[in-house]
Design goal:
Length: 286
Amino acid sequence: MLGRLRKKNLQYCLRDYARHLVRRARAPQAHGPRHILFALCDHYEPLWHGAPDDVGNARVDAWADHYPALGEFRDSDGRPPRHGFFFPGEEYRPHFLDQLAKLARAGFGEVEFHLHHDGDTADSLAPRIAAHLQTFSEHGHLSREGASFRWAFIHGNWSLANGRPDGKWCGVDDELPMLHELGCYVDLTFPSAPDPCQPDKVNQIYWPVGDLTKRRCYENGERAKVGVHHDDRLLMITGPLAFARKGSTGIRLENGAITGDDPPDAQRVATWINQGIHIEGRPEWV
């Protein structure tokens, strides 16, 4: 049994998953309507699997042409679906960001920052990220606060803060403070299970605590609470992670990933909602 768990790298998250079940059972029940907030954080990679530029152009054009049709669906505030395009800096092509800017201006989403990198230090990585952010802004993307950009992040290959056991796909132990200094206010990399970068922090919104220059510093955190804010670090928002029913007899690891092989359905959506991920003090917002 232990061997099977390690094969799926579940030793990284089982302890906090058990704690999550206890937290959920003890959590105060929301009174009145529950507000369901979906954050669709897309690793949006037009050149996925080494596609040539013409294929990437066709993929982005298809989104720009057809996504607005979803505008017939509206939430309780009258807004259409808004997609989170986490665009990889290393795939920059002007046409890609110009097309996504059309969707953003029409209210159908926002472009945030995604990056695959390897073998870096903070000194080598920070200037490259700063250059990417400037490029994004020239196409009308990213928010500003004064002279600084404000942006959300997903790490390529989930290897935030040098999180892989083999040290690949990052190299920067002190990545979280570096990202924050460049204007990143929230990381949405996780969950990554069964990938070994998965932290022992499950179904939580939290502030990382402790020595943030250490590798995998995202393992330790303070739950986000109403009225409590930290200006000296970024926020971690994790998506749903659970063991859930698969069909009538099976069990699956639900990690919130939406793929062609694993599309959303009513059963999956119910599992996501039932994890009750929320800021402490607002259990009715999940």
